[in-house]
Every structure is written in structure tokens, then in C-alpha cells.
Amino acid sequence: MAEITRDVLIVGAGAAGLTAANDLRKAGLSVAVLEARDRVGGRLWTDVIDGAMLELGGQWVSPDQDALKDTIDELGLETYSRYREGDSVYVGPDGQVHRFTGEMFPVSAATEAVIAEITERLDAMVAEIDPDQPWAHPRAAEWDSVTWDAWLRAQTDDDEAVLNLAFATGSAMLTKPTHSFSLLQSLHMAASAGSYSNLVDADFILDQRVVGGLQKVPLLLAERLGDDVLLNQPVRSLEWSDDGVTATTDELTVRARFAILAHAPVLYSRIAFEPPLPRRQHQLHQHLSMGFVIKVHAVYDRPFWREQGLSGTAFSPYELAHEAYDNTNHGDERGTLVGFVSDQNADDLFALSAEERKERILASLSHYYGPEATDPVVYYESDWGTEEWTRGAYAASFDMGGLHRYGADLRTAVGPIHFACSDMAGAGFQHVDGAIRMGHLVASTIVESRRAAGDQAEVG
């Protein structure tokens, strides 16, 4: 078995791990990045399916995502705006299709007033939350003991208002049923985007895309690291002590002073730690789980919805595809729609045959865009739940009470082992921006600890 020695071992070649590796190299440290998959990028994956370039994972860039925007600029990549000219579409509880412009759904005046009032209240609550430590809020324990759904239903008996307010953090972001996570987790999700209003504003959250796909970010970061990125190397065991770490794959042994686990926390259990991780981590990691959403790609010979004066933006808490957008690639004559089917609905669909699943999803899209939506030239479902090295989408979040109970320990190093990924970010939580922020943070922590150790040695 081959053996190599480095200053820092990084497990996972996603945006967090590759950012950390590049920062460490710039600081003069040697690195090795071990990636279980046969590609870099983690939950960023741009692929060609039946001749169509599709972004199977993350893809959008928001105005507040400075870490991601700085990386895009530094790598020399170009961005372009999501198409949004024309009317959006909303399907109400009666199945009626309503065209509208602006942020507010075309609901009754009474429901609109309720949504506006509760949104204002949520924005005020979110403004008190530090996204890096939501558990520090004086009411954190209280807010972590009530479900997001229960809190909303305690504010109003207007069911349409509740469903529209709930899905921004439920189906759309955490991709879990709204009864399964807490008010605090929902407020943290909103705080990570700056406000609840930002989170529900599609023109803010889904603003720009990278020409050629967002996976170009990790691909170019990995290119700079050359042979220090090793693919098809799942780490089977990790021995650790105060002196360093030894990682073993099926083909390789890597010795290093530090390790960074830069992958989804639901995968920590795939590594045999020697000695075992401390009890606190054993407990903590059991209270994190992935959400689940199907990202649906439908490519047409042209963006036919634009001919109807539609932007492609569509929402409904009553539809199988709860939201959809114009996802046409830069400079492409064909039109692409992307739709999302989340949590319980996604589970239910995978009980069906592939053909019936496709038929149901396209029928839902047709409720927004008309019958032409049922006849794409390319159709593909991103199913991250089947990905061995991801196991869900978009990211991991805590179960009820878990954020207040364990959140403060999420990034805490264990001896020489450090943790970094989008699932533990404050700003940019669950996004590529958060992954990059965590990569920068953990790299600077290691550089500082080495510097402090060097200073101590000199004093000694």
C-alpha cells in the first residue's frame, strides 16, 4: 500500500475542502485531498444528459454571497442573470392559475395582510439571530422546542397563509416536512440569508448563474492543486492523537499533522475512528439528517413559456412541484425548466415507476405552463438520495431541539481533526457560499494553531 505524508489531510473535494486546501497551500503547508467519488465538486455537478448541459446540484449565486462571488471573480468565471421577464404563476387551493408580478402571491386581501404581518414579525425575530450561533439567543431553547408548523398555526388560522409562509424554509430550503424541524432552525435558515424576506424573494436567492455551470468553481480550484487531489479514495479509517492523523483508503495511507473532514456530516459514520470520537460528537452527529428534494430538469425545443409572457417563475404549496423556474442555459436556443419536488412528496414519488413519476411531475408543471410542458426533448431527475457519498439534498439540519442542544459543538475540532462544510455554515448555510466560508475559516484556524505552536516552541 502506497504511503504519503502531508501537513494537512482533507477528506472531500467539494467547495469547502478545495477552498481550505488552496488556502493552506498558499500559507506554505502541504496538503492531500482524498475524494470518495470519481469527480470533484461534491454537491456541485454539471453534466451533459442526452446532449443537454444540466446543473444536477447547486447552481445559483445570490447578491449577499460574497465568499462565492469573490471566488468566482478570482477564478475568472462569468455570470449571467436568471431569466425573469414577464409574469410569474401561482396555483391556489382551488387549482386556479393566477398570473402575477412582484413578490406577493395573488391571494385574497385578507390572506395577503396576514402573510405581510407575519413576515414582518419573522424579519424582526431573524434580525436578533446570529447565524453563526443561533443557540445563543435568549429564547433559543423555547424556539427550538416548537415546530415551524405549530408556531405558524399559532399565529393564524388562515391555512393558505400558513402554507405559503411555511414552504420557504420547509419544502424550498431545508427540504423536510414543516412538522419535523423547529422554529429556531427555520429562523437560522432565514438568518443565513440576511432576513426571512430575502429567503422568500426568488429574485434575490436565485439571482445569477455561472456560465458553463457552478461546478467550474471546484474544478478550477482542484486544477490548482494538481496531483494533490486523489479521486476514488474513500477514507475507511482515521487514527488520531495529539501528534497527528493517519488515514487509510483501500489503496493508500496518508499521514498528516491535521485532518479536515469536508463532507456532509451524515457521512462521518462511514469512517472508523481510532480512538472513537468523543461522546459529544457521537450524540451530536445522530441529531443531524439530510433533507430530500428531487430537482427536475425539463428541456424543450424552445422556451415556449416566454411566448405566453411568462417568466418561468412558478409557485404553489398545493402542487407536486412546489416551485419552478426558467433555467435556460446561457446562449442556448432551447428552453429549460427546473422544478422541485420535496420531502414527503419526493418520498411518495419514488414508490412509483420511473414512467409514472415523470408523468406526474410533468402534469404538475403543465398546471403552471400549459400542455406543452408535458413534452420535453430531455427529461432528468436529480436524485441525491441515491448518491452514496451524499444521501440527500440539499443539506443536513438538526432534528427538533438539536440545534440548541448541540449546535455550539458542530464546528469544534477534536484533537487534530477539524470540520468544514456548508451544513455547518452561518451565513450561506446550505449553500456553496457557506462551504467556501467554512473552508477559509478552518484553514485559517489550522494556520493560526501552527503559528501558536511555533511561538511556544521558540519560547520553550
Automatic annotation (TrEMBL):
Its EC number is 1.4.3.10. FAD binds at residues 35-36, 235. Residues 16-446 form the Amine oxidase domain. Substrate binds at residue 340. Pfam families: Amino_oxidase. It comes from the Bacteria. InterPro entries: Amino_oxidase (IPR002937), FAD/NAD-bd_sf (IPR036188), Flavin_amine_oxidase (IPR001613), Flavin_MAO (IPR050703). Its cofactor is FAD. Belongs to the flavin monoamine oxidase family. This is Putrescine oxidase. The gene is puo_2.
